[in-house]
Amino acid sequence: MRSYRKYTGRKLDFGAPESFSQKICVSKLYNATPEKTCLTDKLQVREWVAEKIGAEYLIPLYGAGYNSFKEIDFDALPRKFVIKCNHDSGSTILIEDKQNVDLRQLRRQYDFYMRRNFAYVSFELHYKDIKPKILVEMDVSEDGRAARDYKFLCFHGRPYYCWVDTDRFGNHKRITYDMDWTVQPFVQYTYPQAEPEPCPQNFEKMKKIVTTLCQGFDQVRVDLYNVRNKIYFGEMTFTDGSGYEAIFPEEWDIALGELWHLARGRR
After folding, report:
1. pLDDT digits (tens), the chain, 267 positions
2. Which has the closest alpha carbon to 166: 189, 141, 187?
3. Which of 1, 85, 102, 230 is most deeply packed, by most CB within 10 A?
4. How far apart are CA 122 and CA 100, in angstroms?
């Protein structure tokens, strides 16, 4: 409760949560199911996605399943790639040129990531049983910047809004659209507002993919990348911002919460 107030400036009512961010805080403690654990694992989820929509939507891997950083053969990797852990959030690093990387510093970072159980960082308990691995994947940036990240907010098997993130590894900005690509008057946390852009040509296809992937969940965020009209799966996120990145203005946090009929102890 203190952490929620610290980050949002708002009071958390565990007994009767109303807003989207409050319900995330309740769900991360009481709704941590084995299925969510599986789909949060950045390696295991690939098999599930391939079965649901096809392997062509998966970002190609250069290596995966590493139990430690020292197992990675950097000589065999291309100049540019992305490295991340499967069991956490925030460990993704874009390597622009491996020749300019301090491998000792990078190893220290990933030794730390691999030791921590992310479930206890902010009590997102569905992370607890993910076995830590490191994976290396193809970089899907475009024009020297991270690919646009389309984060679909879904409730009860239906996408309602889409956050579009730009330049994630640089001047990170975000803008919100509805499913008709109309800009919405709310923002998440402190992300600067991005400028509106034309609707992607394949937005309807993205919506169909997201609708397939979000079935059976009362709430989930489905992330896709769209690179020169090629769609890639990003991740499934069940506890957006751990509930600490509230929606502003507050009436929109409550409006999103109303879309989510939270049921404690079951999906």
Report:
1. 788 999 899 999 989 999 999 999 999 999 999 999 999 999 999 999 999 999 999 999 999 999 999 999 999 999 999 999 999 999 999 999 999 999 999 999 999 999 999 999 999 999 999 999 999 999 998 777 788 999 999 999 999 999 999 987 788 899 999 999 999 999 888 889 999 999 999 999 999 999 999 999 999 999 999 998 999 999 999 999 999 999 999 999 999 999 998 644 333
2. 141
3. 85
4. 33
Instruction: Return the CATH number at 253.
Output: 3.30.470.20
CA-CA distance, 126 to 28, in Å (whole number)?
7
Output the CA angle 41-132-224, nearest 5 degrees.
30
How far CA 34 is from CA of 38, 42, 53, 238, 259, in Å, comes to 6, 14, 21, 12, 24
Find out whether 145 and 225 touch, Cβ atoms under 8 Å.
no
What total of structural domains would you count in the chain? 2
Whether 94 and 165 share a structural domain: no
Amino acid at 174: R
Domain hosting residue 91, numbered range = 60-139
Whether residues 40 and 155 fall in one domain: yes
Q: Is residue 189 located within the same domain as residue 235?
A: yes
